[in-house]
TrEMBL record, chain A:
Residues holding substrate: 149-153, 181, 196, 200, 285
Gene: OSGEP
Identification of the protein by name: N(6)-L-threonylcarbamoyladenine synthase
Keywords on record: Acyltransferase, Cytoplasm, Metal-binding, Nucleus, Signal, Transferase, tRNA processing
Keyword Transferase: yes
Lineage of producing organism: Eukaryota, Metazoa, Chordata, Craniata, Vertebrata
Keyword presence, Magnesium: no
Automatic annotation (TrEMBL), chain B:
Protein's name in the database: Cancer/testis antigen 1
Source species: Rhinolophus ferrumequinum (Greater horseshoe bat)
Lineage: Eukaryota, Metazoa, Chordata, Craniata, Vertebrata
Comp. bias regions, Gly residues: 7-34
Family listed: Belongs to the CTAG/PCC1 family.
Region (Disordered): 1-94
A Pfam cross-reference name: Pcc1
Length: 354, 189
């Protein structure tokens, strides 16, 4: 049984790639998925045959959508060919319904609807956040973890309860990954392979902790003030020699990650959870994993985390969530297949879990 | 500019030629589209100077099917079997000018036209606040009317609509070429 997953790359926000998910024999397909994920890391400098975007820019919806339209058909064909499948082998079409940037989401959805009609297959609109969670659960084997979902577009602490992924805490403004990415632009840090990765490497060489605003508001966090503050002081401190760029990277990471650890721990205490799972692109960060591990050990809990193949947006995560939905009987009628830029994690009824 | 009450006339604008999904730059869209019209003016008009370029992709030869009409060719006359896709635009309030843009897309078969319509209709439903989209089918001709008060929003939506139609057509051409001339392709959920 094969699930055609159409999950498309929207750089910086969420990653979508077409892939096939065969729950019985996934090794060959998984290699294919991994090669797609690694060959196209999240980064605005990678646009295939097109011109290279500025190295210090963010992702623009129009440009991203144009990129998707340019590559999507070849990619879909490549996935079919490499998997050795035809349309007749496919059981359903899964695509990212949201959240994310509108234009790329729409491009993907149009392709998914067209393919679903042509091949006469059911359609499944998948929540991107739930894709991360389900992939994390599958890869790590975590049974019922408290989830820290951290990426360029989202920052949430999530726990499952009564057929919903409940949001216990979240950012009240920008995502932690967005904060890191925008700070990278202030320091003119390269986007290749990704600003977050480069900040992490620089932070390892930092020696001085610069005091930054620490903004935890109950179960929620705020990053926009930290970003404004560090944007304001960075140039002054660098010019006067009070600190180095590496110190600033180190200080920013320590501050924002500590905030995330705090709200995750609070959620775990509330739920009585003995498992924590990190998902999302920022989850690749080894320092964050290290800090979370320390917290879990102190609580006698267990931390689950993945590497960049599964943390960063990828098509397989949409496939995994779509597969769960398909088996549980979910279907998305064409009339309901519009995309949702603000698709909340807790909007989905998780009928595939007890 | 084409007045709304005069109805769509001949195709206008756009370049002939073949396009691929990789083409960047100007919007890709179907041949046979007309410029924006003002709902409350009676003047006839040529295609708007600012009208998007015609779709290169849709003018590409379709395996097993006919090419869509090149710019300047008369659009197909209305045929029986009209199907209306979306809600009617709301009546405009006093002093509020409505801008309209008409697209008429000819497909090789009614089934292909319906696939394209159903692929875009959900997006059209979501756009109802700023830009109202109304789909109608006349045999193998798909007619889209976009109505808005804000010309910028209208332009954005027109460009987006054309790009999405082109994408849907490319999918049909690429993956099930025979369906472009099929009479009854499979229906999705």
């Amino acid at each position: 049984m094969y699930l055609l997953l159409l999950a498309w790359l929207a750089l910086g926000s969420h990653c979508h790639w077409p892939c096939f998910w065969d729950m019985e024999v996934c090794t060959a397909i998984w290699r294919h998925l991994c090669s797609l994920g690694i060959c196209h890391p999240v980064g605005c400098a990678v646009f295939g045959a097109g011109p290279l975007l500025g190295l210090y820019e963010g992702f623009l919806p129009g440009d991203t959508a144009r990129h998707h339209r340019a590559v999507i058909l070849d990619l879909l064909q490549e996935a079919l060919t490499e998997a050795g499948l035809t349309s007749q082998d496919i059981d359903c079409i899964a695509y990212t319904k949201g959240p994310g940037m509108g234009a790329p989401l729409v491009s993907v959805a149009v392709v998914a609807r067209t393919v679903a009609q042509l091949w006469n297959k059911p359609l499944l609109g998948v929540n991107h956040c739930i894709g991360h969670i389900e992939m994390g659960r599958l890869i790590t084997g975590a049974t019922n973890p408290t989830v820290l979902y951290v990426s360029g577009g989202n920052t949430q602490v999530i726990a499952y309860s009564e057929h919903r992924y409940r949001i216990f805490g979240e950012t009240i403004d920008i995502a932690v990954g967005n904060c890191l990415d925008r700070f990278a632009r202030v320091l003119k840090i390269s986007n290749d392979p990704s600003p977050g990765y480069n900040i992490e490497q620089m932070a390892k060489r930092g020696k001085k902790l610069v005091e930054l605003p620490y903004t935890v508001k109950g179960m929620d966090v705020s990053f926009s003030g930290i970003l404004s503050f560090i944007e304001d002081v960075a140039q002054r401190m660098l010019v006067t020699g009070e600190c180095t760029p590496e110190d600033l990277c180190f200080s920013l990471q320590e501050t924002v990650f500590a905030m995330l650890v705090e709200i995750t721990e609070r959620a775990m205490a509330h739920c009585g959870s003995q498992e924590a799972l990190i998902v999302g692109g920022v989850g690749c960060n080894m320092r964050l994993q290290e800090m979370m591990e320390t917290m879990c050990q102190e609580r006698g809990a267990r931390l689950f985390a993945t590497d960049e193949r599964f943390c960063i947006d990828n098509g397989a995560m949409i496939a995994q969530a779509g597969w769960e939905m398909f088996r549980a009987g979910h279907r998305t009628p064409l009339s309901d297949s519009g995309v949702t830029q603000r698709y909340r994690t807790d909007e989905v009824e998780v009928t595939w879990r007890d | 500019m084409q007045a709304a009450d005069q109805g769509p006339g001949g195709a206008a604008g756009g370049d002939e030629g073949h396009g691929t999904p990789g083409d960047s730059g100007g919007p890709d869209g179907p041949a046979g589209h007309e410029g924006a019209g003002r709902g409350d003016e009676g003047e006839a008009g040529a295609a708007a100077c600012g009208a998007p370029q015609a779709a290169q992709a849709l003018q590409a030869p379709i395996p097993g099917g006919n090419t869509v009409p090149a710019p300047g060719e008369q659009a197909a006359s209305e045929q029986s079997g009209e199907r209306s896709g979306e809600a009617e635009p709301t009546a405009r309030g006093p002093g509020r000018e409505q801008l309209q843009y008409f697209l008429r897309l000819r497909f090789p078969t009614p089934a292909a036209a319906d696939v394209a319509r159903r692929s875009l209709a959900p997006h059209g439903q979501q756009q109802q606040e700023a830009v109202r989209m109304q789909f109608r089918m006349f045999g193998n001709v798909l007619s889209v009317r976009l109505t808005a008060e804000d010309p910028v929003q209208l332009e954005i939506c027109v460009n987006s609509c054309i790009e999405q139609f082109a994408l849907s057509v490319w999918v049909m051409q690429r993956f099930v070429p025979s369906s472009y001339s099929m009479s009854n392709p499979g229906r999705g959920a």
